[in-house]
Amino acid sequence: MSLIIALKFFHYLSLFLAGGLGVANALLAKAHQKAGMPPAPPVQKTMMTLARLGLVALIILWVTGVILTNQLYGSFNLGWAFHLKLLGATVLLLVVAFLNVHLADSAKKGTPPNPKIMNAIPYIARTSLAAVLIGIAVVTTT
């Protein structure tokens, strides 16, 4: 039982971190877009740090989620809603991983991040998060 509690603690902690870091990064990007100016190098560096921390939080979320699912249910055969949650979580992980690569590449080249990519990422992330939340709400409702 203490393993389950520890896993849930880290699962929830990483969920809050990933969400908060994603919101912070999106707010920074949007503020610069509205101002019509690219982020200054220190802001770009901060955005990269937020993206990296978000990716680490998502990886911890995945690892703890897989172990929790195995410990609590013994299977991933939990129905369509659970698979919707997994699809949303997979898309979110891929988007954040891509964002990390894109921000690192932009920093290496000394150019601002592509505005089209930075505009698309929040929409994809929000849609995938909605899928995760709908899926888990259905799965955990009896």
Can you walk me through this structure?
With 142 residues, this protein is mainly α. Helix 3 (80-109) packs antiparallel against helix 4 (115-139). It has helices at 2-35, 41-73, 80-109, 115-139. It is built from four helices and no strands.
Main sheet record: none
The portion of residues assigned to helices is: over 70%
The global form is elongated
N-end to C-end Cα span: 22 Å
**What fraction strand?**
under 5%
- Average of per-residue pLDDT values: 90
Short description:
With 142 residues, this protein is mainly α.
Give the helix/strand layout.
Layout: H1 2-35, H2 41-73, H3 80-109, H4 115-139
Features:
142 residues; mainly alpha
